């Protein structure tokens, strides 16, 4: 890329009188990207090929393979944002059933939604739980992180909270009547005897590790 040295306008983006080439345009696009800290939409292979002076802390790219906006933090590429995507959580004390699990990320904030519909008596033991899509900050695990609704196929609903560890999410239900300020563990017979058609819906967010 160059600029005219005789007559006419001079400066950035003004090309020589010779025809513009693909290389000229690529250099201009790279310069604009550098000035704006945004490299644009590229596949992961091209992202990983960025080296030298072109790779610097704060550089943004849109990873077209993962559908995520990513930033180079000085040591690697960190996801800044991606929309809803599915994940397949591992399970503890719950088996089979129809499972839908989606999450999105905005910076360090992870937002999740899990819907599990039983196909039978699929809960065993206390505290059925599901693994998180992204590990949680351990300093953020001492709080209630969202809401849960436990739906009996007979029509009853029990509200509750979701609590997380560094790697799992676990629902707790609000005990009725005189124990309204207490949250209790879910098990095969609490808050009701689980059968096919019953459902657990959890929505929660947390800070990523």
Architecture overview:
With 209 residues, this protein is mostly beta strands. It has 2 domains: 22-80, 3-Layer(aba) Sandwich (YefM-like fold); 87-207, Adenovirus Type 5 Fiber Protein (Receptor Binding Domain) (Sandwich), CATH 2.60.90. The protein is built from 2 helices and 13 strands; from the N terminus they run αβαββββββββββββ. Strands 1, 2, 3, 4, 5, 6, 7, 8, 9, 10, 11, 12 and 13 form a 13-stranded mixed β-sheet that branches. It starts with 21 loop residues before the first helix and ends with a strand. Mean pLDDT is 84; it is low at 1-13.
Quick overview of this protein structure:
This protein has 209 residues and is mainly β. The chain has helices at residues 22-36, 44-48, and strands at residues 38-42, 60-63, 68-72, 77-86, 91-92, 98-106, 109-117, 129-131, 144-151, 157-164, 168-174, 183-185, 199-207.
Query: What distance separates the N and C termini?
Result: 44 Å
Q: Determine the structural class based on helices, strands and strand pairing.
A: mainly beta
Reading the helices and strands in chain order gives HEHEEEEEEEEEEEE
What Rg do the Cα atoms give? 26 Å
Mean pLDDT metric: 84
What do we call the CATH topology of the largest domain? Adenovirus Type 5 Fiber Protein (Receptor Binding Domain)
